[in-house]
């Protein structure tokens, strides 16, 4: 069968989720997937962005990364989201992108995508679980097939033991190695489930067409 | 003691939550509260708003309602939120406003507010419960005291039996009478709890000052 | 490939979830699956059961249905749970069964199962969404692949529009036809996703073994 | 006014939540409350308890602590729950107790109680947030006034930054000092909110009675 098409979709203001998304992209390419790294459009006013040096710097550093579009969602077989928490929910930038998908949703084209979610927060228990649930709930509305990591690998325990998705405590020191290993596992698992599902679906259609 | 200061804060695109907020305002004024009806700022592009006649019409019809500010949050003793669901979470406009409160949060001024939440969705079970939870989770981050209605009145059963807050199925026909009665109860209950809490706190401080 | 093995696992005290489970079993058999209808063990004291005539009657009527065991969980490729809500979470009988799965969980044998959940409540918004989430969260701990229905069929809208799983308002009048159609769709969809996933996995292993 | 009546209600199998509950009881008594330490009845079979030495030992060590009853729920002004997580939800023992409260709920006697919740899990992100939400959702059904700690004290940040309630990673080494300080704060805050609310309510009734 053809390569799995994976959209790694992130929002980031200070860089943590950008770094998480990059780790996922690398793991996905090594696993043979066709990958698009896509950023979620900024909705905060320019002055808000400019008021925080690291936010401004990241915006400039990532200006060449394409913004995710509905066409990307239609193209991909699987989505891996990475979004910071804000008060226990996904950042409003992420939510604004979710809210913009109505036209695709209405045609049924968001259904049957394989999905998984990652997040970061400033405190270890400051929304690292609830934010992932906030995203999974929305993805259920899309008709997605959810592939959270569970406890399917030792790396998950090393990274804080979050069975819903890799979650990072944003310390300003970058993403630690344990979290990167958990991200790699989460990515590979998502791709494996997607490959099994899609190849089974493809074979089924070939059989029907015979 | 002085009047309870209530901020009724809503986001609406088709009018359901605007009508819900108005019902709450009326009930709150009848109960003797000092009330501000406040709308959440639109973040969607103007062309999106204009593309839907009823969204555009509502925007024009409500242009004189003030947009909620951080000063309103500081002023109020109690908040009653009304927000539509989007894929099982609060509308991104609502989330964008929540996300903007960092400066107030950091000074502790969001703590100890009495809060309650209402919502609407297109389907009876299309996020009417999860959206309220999405909001309550965030309000926990603020240090709020949560006053959901529970099953403290018969009107709640008549309106669909949502113990987390009044939730309306948006049919385009306006808010039904049963829901309005549930909104009135939810509002009065929030105010009563706020009054007891605030008068108790006021008395405590007077005693301390003696 | 061989037939999909589906465990339809329910708890019921007044009969609603038993009827929902039966509708799922019928749809699954028609779709060619190998199905086990399994009830969750009662944990309430006998006098509690006896104190309510319909609870006692159901217990007697279903005494020949086997109680779900860890061996059933290991046997099945896919699980369809049906559980009443209790205060917005799954009934404690259901939770007691979940809690008993530690030995299987620890060996990794609960991972990679395809799962979906249904529920009932006395009020339309009395936990029909939150109960499903309570179950899905736990199933994420198991390493499951989640297959909620989303809005992938018109029957879902007719049955209340719950994208997380079919949910029934328990009126004492049995499960309505609209809900039965939604259950049938949810069951068929779970089986289809399971079939694609499992046949893809089987083919992958054959290729590896060549 | 009279002393606040606080029920500290816990379930524990390995001792973590028992220790958390004890820390809360001590803080509450120092704050002048009338406190009952109450354990939730074991529902696991005796052989399950006996099969784990520390579970058996705790059962024996706590045999003189009274089991919580509906009369306790009616008596108390405020509840502080402490329950371990099981797969991201509260332990089934805790849920079984919740489920048994129907008779009290139906008479409205569970309404208007001030509540807060604590938890523990084996992994830092292994359900420490979702379990608290599972409990708060149920308490909303009871008509409770929710008093999660938010970020109202520095001790919360030191203890992992969980704004929903103190949560402890159960290491088998007992509850750490940082968590104890967070428990003390959570307890004092619950009592303070309860005192303000109740004294305000009492004064209101005296005024009405004049």
Automatic annotation (TrEMBL), chains A, B, C, D:
A Pfam entry, by short name: FMN_red
Residue ranges of domain Flavodoxin-like in the record: 6-191
InterPro entries on file: Flavodoxin/NO_synth, Flavoprotein-like_sf, Flavoprotein_WrbA-like, FMN_Rdtase-like_dom
GO cellular component, one term: membrane
Gene Ontology molecular function terms on file: FMN binding; NAD(P)H dehydrogenase (quinone) activity
Superkingdom as given in the UniProt entry: Bacteria
Similarity-based family: Belongs to the WrbA family.
Protein name: NAD(P)H dehydrogenase (Quinone)
